[in-house]
Amino acid sequence: MTTMTPRIAFDPIERAGELWGERIGDAGAMRLATSIMRVQQLVLASLDAAVKPFGITFARYEVLVLLSFSRTGSLPLSKVGERLMVHPTSVTNLVDRLEAQGLVARATDASDRRRILASLTPQGRRVLKRATAALTDIEFAVGTLDADDQEKAYELLRGLRSTDFES
Length: 167
Known about the structure:
Strand order of the largest sheet: 1-3-2
Oligomer: single chain
Number of helices: 7
Low-confidence stretches: none
Largest sheet: 3 strands, antiparallel
CATH topology: Arc Repressor Mutant, subunit A
Strand content: 5-15%
Distance between the termini: 43 Å
Radius of gyration: 19 Å
CATH class: Mainly Alpha
CATH architecture: Orthogonal Bundle
Structural class: mainly alpha
Number of domains: 1
CATH superfamily: Winged helix-like DNA-binding domain superfamily/Winged helix DNA-binding domain
Shape: elongated
Mean pLDDT: 91
Order of helices and strands: HHHEHHEEHH
């Protein structure tokens, strides 16, 4: 049973912005950064809850999707980290857990024995299909925004996100 945080009668980020403005200065950047972090927490909690019945987290789901998009059916762990924009240690942890669940298989790359490849197992494909349906059913936790607002938000956040890669 999950415990919900009680609703409060005001927006705490808005209130923090007012106090910031009174005591420190312009609150614009602080409010935006704090809002992004709070939305990320809310969306991730919803996504994790949607895929929990399948024994995975949203982070593990992302690995499964990425592997399913691969032309060859497998990817080096380094590419998984690069494409998901996560640290190599996180990739290893995610793949370890997925492998223990029988959803991903690991193999040495025949063309470069230093590289480890990850690929989906048949069970991984089944879990991926069911988890995708569950996430689609909840509109990836952003369904309170209409399609136009989703596109606008995506475009606005692209500038922040793109500092981590070349366009």
